[in-house]
Write a structure and sequence with these properties.
By secondary structure, the chain is α/β, with parallel strands linked by helices. It has a single domain, classed as Alpha/Beta hydrolase fold, catalytic domain (Rossmann fold), CATH 3.40.50.1820. The protein is 30% helix and 25% strand. Strand 6 and strand 7 form a beta hairpin. Helix 1 crosses helix 6.
Length: 237
């Protein structure tokens, strides 16, 4: 047995994917699946702000793809929104400030449905939470998990749409967030009766540090596949 560390990459089936948007763009992505068995649920990952370095390889999303297929039987779909680059390549188009990215979110959800992936959940981080809130309530997803929501681009009307949809929202708010801290977040998300808000002590917006990564991944799994929670901290070589 070896300890699961920040650099650990656990076994999975990994394949590059190309998403096609309704406005004619090709987006770079990757799907990670459990090795040798079918997934029980699917994470559709929406990355942080690309104009500030966000991409499909942003560390929480990368670690989800490296660990959760093996540890929790989850499929993890990551992709670069329009105009965003990573080691996998650059998606076509230009940054749309959260507006034209509606087509990107729809392309990912549609691709996952066409691929037969089960139980889709949006997982947004920072800018990705704005995309989930603005465009996800009406999509064919089970719900959404929000990491460090800023509520800059998404507003009360978007929260009301989620309230009306009745789909679950899990909201993880760092105690020391740069943009939205727990007390204000509780007030804002009170509009969504089904939202579960978790304040994470001493955490910051970027969730740097393995203890915070483990908290985030455990909370995702607790919501999406509770039978696999809590996640182990060691892996049999």
């Amino acid at each position: 047995m070896s300890e699961i560390r920040a650099s650990s990459v656990l076994p999975a089936r990994r394949e590059p994917v190309t998403l096609h948007t309704d406005d004619g763009l090709d987006l770079v992505g990757e799907l990670a699946l459990p090795a040798g068995r079918d997934p029980v649920a699917t994470l559709v990952c929406l990355h942080p702000l690309p104009t500030h370095g966000g991409m499909m390889d942003s560390h929480i999303l990368r670690k989800a793809s490296y660990r959760l297929p093996a540890l929790a039987d989850l499929a993890v779909l990551r992709f670069n929104t329009r105009g965003t680059s990573s080691e996998q390549g650059r998606s076509q188009g230009e940054f749309g400030a959260g507006e034209t990215e509606r087509y990107d979110v729809a392309a990912a959800v549609d691709w996952a449905i066409a691929a037969g992936l089960p139980q889709l959940w949006l997982v947004g981080w920072s800018f990705g939470t704005e995309l989930a809130l603005k465009w996800g309530a009406g999509m064919a997803v089970e719900g959404a998990i929000l990491l460090s929501p800023a509520l800059h681009r998404a507003g009360d009307a978007d929260l009301d749409a989620w309230a009306a949809a009745g789909k679950p929202l899990l909201v993880l708010v760092p105690e020391l967030d740069d943009y939205l801290r727990p007390d204000e977040a509780r007030q804002r998300f009170a509009r969504v009766p089904q939202a579960e808000l978790i304040a994470v002590d001493r955490a910051k917006h970027l969730w740097v540090g393995e203890p915070y990564v483990r908290i985030v991944l455990n909370e995702i799994v607790r919501r999406v596949n509770p039978a696999a929670a809590p996640l182990p901290t060691e892996w049999k070589d």
